[in-house]
Amino acid sequence: MDLKFSDPERIANIAMWMASDHGRDLFPTYFGSGVALVPAPGHAPRVKGAEPRSTTIELVRSMESEGLGRRREWLRRLEKVPKSAWSRGDRPTEKRHYSTIDLSAPPVLGLDPVDRITVVDDVITSGATLHACVRRLAEAFPSARVEAFAVVRTISGVTQLEKAFDPVPEGEGRIVLNADGSTRRTP
Q1: 2 inside domain
Q2: At 19, which CATH number?
Q3: What is the structure's pLDDT at 51?
């Protein structure tokens, strides 16, 4: 599955599946009317004044139109980091991601009450980006439950997939920040 070309029909189909009984059964609290859906920022800062465009933003827009939550673009990239897909040996650490991601606007508590936030990304590699996003939002919203969701997870060291469609149910995936600053994702 190639999401990087932002095929609108494919993105809409993913959101529709997430809104189906199958998707809602797998992710009962990650999505819903009371959830803020926050797209993970891309690897580079957004051009000032430009319409926000990325596969992740399109995905979150489709998810919002399916009733899976309210889109909130609360995170922004301050400076460019290498893309994980092209920097295998020198991927940015969680610390590097964290230092280059900030809130796009200070939260206005009370005007937009939130107790559940799901950070959404199209692809998860090591988990460093999502971990940094969750950490940044958890600091801004200390009473909220902040989770992460990605449509596709990369798999290393596998020569043959047992199945192409293998969703990880809510609560079963983990991203661990190791003492050396690296991240480990399971599965």
Answers
A1: no
A2: 3.40.50
A3: 67
